[in-house]
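During the reporting period the student researcher (J.K.) took over the structure-prediction task from the postdoctoral fellow and processed the backlog of single-chain submissions. One of the processed entries is reproduced below for the supervisory committee.
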Amino acid sequence: MIDWTATFPYILIASLVLFAIGIYGIITCKNFLRAVFGIEILLVTANLLLLSFGLGTEDSSILSDPFAQTLSLMIIAVNAVFLILGSSINKLLQETNDDILDFNFEIEDITRENTDEEKEQINSSDTPQEEEKE
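J.K. obtained the following structure tokens:
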């Protein structure tokens, strides 16, 4: 019988490489779909590790732990739903030509104070305009 514990270090190395590829894909993405695929790779890595932990020892068969296989099926279902949602969001982003995600904003853009014209415009929109009676 095959010793499943002998293959575990290779599975662990493969999952670490996949995890690094997924993180690299998320960090360096400029396209929303690439970020979705990076997260998909991370979910596949979690699935691979979960199934490798459920392999068992050399005395047991390969189908020894049904809990790991059940959780793996749930991860696959979540993975499919995430891929469908990510693809639909990407389609909406492409229709509005907002394909690039821009996270490089300046703090001053958020905390800048309104100019006098902007303050007057805000004040005039807050108070109702009184009509002049003749």
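The committee noted the following: The chain has one domain: 4-124.
J.K. will present the remaining backlog at the next meeting.
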